[in-house]
Each structure stands twice: as C-alpha cells, then as structure tokens.
Amino acid sequence: MKGFLTLSLLAVFGLASAVAGHISMPHTHKTLLIDHCSKYVLIATRGIREAQSDLPGAFKTTINNVLFRVSGSRVVNTVYPTNATLIDQPVQIDYARTSVGVNWIRDFLNRETQVCPDQSYALLGFSEGAIINSFVLDTYQGTGVDKRIKAVLFAGNPFHTPNLTGNVDENGGNLTHGAEGESISAAPAGVRTSSESGRVLDFCFLGDTICNKAGSGPEEIHHSYGKTPSVQRIGTDFLIRHLGGK
C-alpha cells in the first residue's frame, strides 16, 4: 500500500465536476435525506479497500459505543467509490475517487447546516478517509460550518503531520507524535489549525508505514486499529468528551 500519490487541493477539487458525470453512486441522494435533525452526526469515511456498506473498520466499535452513550447521535457513511476486492494489491490514491468523497461531505454539511442549524458533527477517517476529511477541514476553516465540527478522529493517516496536538500512538502515547505520513507533502494547512484547537485525535501505530513513513512493520499493522482495544477505548472517550456524552 506504499506510494500514495502526492495530492494537491486544486487537483482534488478540479476534478469534481468531471467525476459527477462519470461515476455512478447509488443511494447517494437517499443517504443525504433525513426525516429529522439530530444533536450529533458522525460522518464516517472508510479506507480504500472497504465496501460502501461498511463502517470504517478502524472505528466500528468506537462508533457503536458513541451511538449507545451519546443521546441524539447518528452516523452516516461517506459515499465514494472504494474497492473492497483490492486485497493484497498495491493501491494508490485516485484523484477522481477522492474528489467524490470530499464533495459528498461538503454537500452533506452545506445542506445539513442549513436544515439543522443546531446539529454538530464529528469527522472520522481511516487511511484514505483521513485524506478526504483533511481536505474537508481545510475547506471550512474560519466558517460557520467549521464551528459545528466538534471532533475529528483519524487512524492510519497518510497526511499524519509531526508534532501536532492530538498525535498519539496506538496506546495513547507519544511514540509516533513526530511521525510523518507517506503523503505529508500534500497535507493541507487546515488540519494543523484544527489540531491546535484540541479537537483532533490522530492515531498512528508505530509500525504503520502509511502514517509513519519511517516505520518498518508489515501492512497488517495498518489494518489493526479496529482490533486494538486501546484505540477503541481512547477514541470513544475522545468523541464522547467532545460531543457531550456520558
């Protein structure tokens, strides 16, 4: 999974209109429609090899914990074309695919903040999902929408930026606090600003070469977040603290 393509924010958004006309995204409109407003919405963005119907494997337990413990919360899956069959094959980021995810979240937030002005949000992203959410954060810096985003949770982030508040290893320690993700050169500035506010938690396993390019672990480590109790416990506590649960 080494070798994420270097991205630019311009490249991601520049392809948006072309993508819309050529990629079929079933159920997108249905997903955007809701019957009522919630207090909190978790926007979950999965990795490149996870099926559209799945929650991000890195956060399934965390999400279920939050839904149980935070009254008025719900979850939506970001709609973008991943490929669950790409097991054991090298995968690179595709500009068109990524732009679909970025624009889906933007459309969702723009609509929801108008229809449900008191609703707050948490962005959750694993692997490529963290890249998508990083661009979303950058888009809304200094806006009213940004103020409604109360928490950001990443794991296996190719944009992992060293020495930011919220950088933790799988045990909540600082072993990867200074780690650089393999695509750090394309990371937008907005994540740094959000991290300084204390609302970002960015998990990186010591041996995960996607978020720690100096690491040397096998690829399986990149897919270990969902099976690691400390990640789920710390992630749950972080989201509940920022979303006002118990």
From TrEMBL:
Q: Which domain of life is it from?
A: Eukaryota
- InterPro entries per the record? AB_hydrolase_fold, Cutinase/axe
Signal sequence span is: 1-20
Record GO terms (molecular function): carboxylic ester hydrolase activity
| Swiss-Prot/TrEMBL keywords | Disulfide bond, Hydrolase, Signal
Report the protein name in the record.
Cutinase
